[in-house]
TrEMBL record:
The lineage of its organism: Bacteria, Pseudomonadati, Bacteroidota, Flavobacteriia, Flavobacteriales. The chain crosses the membrane at residues 12-31, 37-61, 68-86. Its cofactor is Mg(2+); Mn(2+). It comes from the Bacteria. This is Endonuclease/exonuclease/phosphatase family protein. One of its GO terms (biological process) is DNA repair.
Length: 340
């Protein structure tokens, strides 16, 4: 520090705080929101903390200062967190006749309240789906709409609400032999499932939509709400998500079939609910085969990935892609998987 000028000393002070915060964030996926909702809220800032520490590293590298070791060591300790934010390797693309193409898409009610100026959202989403031709489609914030014409699919939907009935839907090109819903108390969010038959395999597909944070992606979260109230509200949401994840996992544990999980978790890959749902027996398709940031939510401040496709050990993940299609506040994701 003796050889640093006053400005560099200030930069290193900020660097120390943010590097320490990132280091502490590595334990967040193991802290139940019920125990400390405030601490769990910090999981939302992990992408920001990683990016800022990379910038500090670059700053000290250009200055040829040993202070670069602080952020470098912290980033290396959390290398798995880095992999969840950004995949440096090329995306995996394995073409196989036995691939099953799975799409997850939060369609935001097909723009029924005109959040986007585009008046042809439903038709464009339909055209996008037909072009990509997935075998399975998992939709959140779905509503019945006569313009959504997917005649080649079997469908299961669970809707609620008064003004606009909405909920979750699963479309499948494979016959559906069983279906059901896992109800979450005191909310319109839920998880649904279908059992489909594909060749000699029966596969259970889950569509999980956890409690929403209700943060507008296009505005500053603090603009109309104090930071104290925001933390309190988000903390309460995380407690609900924990309860919903527990209900889902109880149902999943009884599944007799191979399992694919799709959904909008309304939380990041650094959260308790992600860590709990993924566990040790599931594979995150983005981590297995994606590249880049993989952001799935159109948040203007930093890349956020809250939509997921996971598979159990019965599957090989052969590809994953996020599509920069601005027809919702979420981006569609598609993975191709193969039964081993």
């Amino acid at each position: 520090m003796k050889k640093l000028n006053l400005f560099d000393k200030f930069v290193f002070f900020l660097n120390s705080i943010l590097a320490t915060t990132l280091l502490l964030s590595y334990i967040l996926p193991y802290i139940e929101p019920e125990r400390s909702a405030f601490v769990s809220v910090l999981s939302l800032t992990v992408p920001f903390l990683i990016i800022v520490n990379i910038l500090f590293l670059i700053y000290w590298l250009l200055r040829i200062k040993k202070q670069l070791l602080l952020s470098l060591i912290v980033l290396l300790i959390g290398f798995n967190h880095m992999a969840s934010l950004y995949k440096f390797s090329a995306s995996k693309q394995v073409e196989d006749k036995d691939n099953i193409a799975i799409m997850n898409y939060n369609v935001r009610l097909f723009n029924v309240f005109n959040w986007l100026p585009n008046k042809n959202i439903t038709a464009e989403i339909t055209a996008f789906i037909k072009e990509r031709n997935p075998d399975i489609i998992s939709m959140q914030e779905y509503r019945q709409d006569s313009d959504l014409s997917l005649k080649d699919y079997y469908k299961f939907e669970v809707l609620s609400g008064n003004k606009v009935k909405n909920g979750q839907a699963i479309f499948s090109k494979f016959p559906i032999i069983n279906k059901g819903s896992i109800e979450f108390p005191n909310t319109d969010n839920n998880a649904i499932f279908v059992d489909v038959v594909r060749a000699e395999d029966t596969i259970r597909i889950y569509n999980v939509h956890l409690q929403s944070l209700k943060i507008d992606a296009s505005t500053d979260p603090l603009k109309n709400e104090t930071s104290e109230n925001l933390f309190k509200r988000v903390g309460n949401t995380f407690r609900l998500q924990q309860m919903q994840a527990d209900l889902f996992l109880e149902h999943k544990a009884a599944s007799p079939y191979k399992v694919i999980i799709c959904g909008d978790f309304n939380n990041t890959a650094y959260s308790y609910v992600y860590n709990t749902i993924k566990g040790d027996d599931l594979k995150d398709a983005f981590v297995e085969a994606g590249n880049g940031f993989g952001r799935s939510f159109d948040f203007k401040f930093f890349p956020v990935r809250i939509d997921f496709i996971m598979v159990d050990e019965s599957f090989i993940v052969n590809s994953f892609k996020t599509f920069d299609v601005k027809l919702s506040d979420h981006f569609p994701i598609i993975s191709r998987v193969k039964v081993k």
